[in-house]
Amino acid sequence: MRNNLPIGIFDSGVGGLTVYRALHDRLPNEHFIYLGDTARVPYGTKSLATVERYALENSEFLASRGIKMLVVACNTASALALPRIRERIGIDVVGVIGPGGRKAVVSCQSTPNRPPRAIKIGVIATEATVTSNAYVEAIRRASPEAEVMQTGCPLFVPLAEEGWTTEPETFSIAERYLKPMRDFRPDALVLGCTHYPILRQVIQQTVGEGVSLIDSGEATAEEVEELLKEKGLANPNAVRVKRGLCDDLDHFYVTDAAERFANVAERFLGTKPSKLEAIEVYGGDELKQEV
Amino acid sequence: MRNNLPIGIFDSGVGGLTVYRALHDRLPNEHFIYLGDTARVPYGTKSLATVERYALENSEFLASRGIKMLVVACNTASALALPRIRERIGIDVVGVIGPGGRKAVVSCQSTPNRPPRAIKIGVIATEATVTSNAYVEAIRRASPEAEVMQTGCPLFVPLAEEGWTTEPETFSIAERYLKPMRDFRPDALVLGCTHYPILRQVIQQTVGEGVSLIDSGEATAEEVEELLKEKGLANPNAVRVKRGLCDDLDHFYVTDAAERFANVAERFLGTKPSKLEAIEVYGGDELKQEV
């Protein structure tokens, strides 16, 4: 039965684990297949054509595994490749940009004592996502008069992967990147890269407690829940025991360097995947490698 | 005539431009073909099998262009893939690890007033290069009793690419990475990643002025000069006009995102390549992309 199939998730690497966590927390009856394209990470500095090709290969790999829905956890791939993936794959595809943008708008509109002016939304993301303008467009579709300011924060990804979540250098770098954003005084700030929730505390402190931080992964999990209901695809078999993150109901694949992935996963989620395999996805083929 | 052929250089991305600069400065009669594998950068966090495959594809692309010698400018590829490249390619191949290790030893041995103890050499590099132990082996081959200490400095690459060469955050991060190295009190410190010469000033200040910094790129240029003489492969046609870096005698290829490469090249070398093309090297094929 289709409802019992897993939900597929792919990301350029480890960052999408924050989206996996959000999905896992919100949808305890579902199970997941995660693909981290660690052989070709990062996507954020690559071109449209290249990101599209990688995203299609990842999508086809997951589709071939039997999934009922595909979540593109990578912001860059969501920004650049969603239309091509939807053309190619015969199942529902959810990216992180639309949900993140919509949630930011709703969050601003529902703020009590909102000043009588257009809402102001900040977006922080990789270079490629900023250049694509995908968040700006998603926000404007939900609120045409919204003021939007975007900033690239290239060092946040390596800082998150190093696990430097509270180091003074991280605060200092955040200050340098985010001062113009703080001066812009946004009502909400979209964490437009999957790594950024790892630095949530630093980012919140830097832009000020009054700014709502929007985690696109959490927004995506909410929309996936609605879509599963709407399409009658939710898994009706309630899981009896409380499920753990990365337990053996969820299957993780990487395209390279599984050990490093497991270590960063532990840093991000507090636990290593119990089922983790290194594969090749070039051209949709699968060729096992020694891990 | 073979002597007129260019020297091929490849790197995982832009970092090898520091090696290109060293070769260009030392060998004004030679011209170069540079390949930056920007579609698959970085190599430093990837596995042996993957780095080997990428390195072989890059080498075959350059060999197919007609070169008289191949310089593997990428430390990670030099550490992991040199034997396989030499097997595959019928020309002389020079990596950066051997020259860097040997130069460090010679530099220590020629220090006046050297204390009567084994020489002490530090190595800073990417995770993959450190794990490979390639520098330790190269140093021990030249000086079996040398004491060697290695440290990975993952944030140095993104800091160099951001152009943060004198920012206080860079000093602070260097202090965090290099304090154990300073305490080790090396006679020489090998900059075992092509990006690190960009941060030379910060690194020198952090470890102390008494430590000789060894730029593997410069060491490689010296060995390439000797090898060209030894094999009778030097270009006899003296260039009459003083050559500029990145002028149109040198040809640059990238596998992705040419514009970003040009921008970082300008940050590293003060100038953009005048001949720059984006190509595909997968499986040795060449397929032009729009730049």
Characterization of this structure:
The structure is a homodimer of 291-residue chains. By secondary structure, chain A is an alpha/beta fold. The first copy, chain A, has 2 domains: 2-95 and 218-284, Rossmann fold, CATH 3.40.50; 98-216, Rossmann fold (3-Layer(aba) Sandwich), CATH 3.40.50. In chain A, 44% of the residues lie in helices and 15% in strands. Chain A is built from 11 helices and 10 strands. The model of chain A is unreliable at 283-291 (pLDDT under 50). Chain A has a 6-stranded parallel beta sheet, sandwiched between helices. In chain A, strands 6-5-7-8 form a 4-stranded parallel beta sheet, with helices on both faces. Chain A has helices spanning 17-26, 48-64, 75-88, 97-109, 127-132, 134-142, 156-162, 168-184, 200-207, 216-230, 258-269, and strands at residues 7-11, 32-36, 69-72, 92-95, 120-125, 147-152, 188-191, 212-215, 251-254, 276-278. The interface between A and B is medium-sized, with 30 and 30 residues.
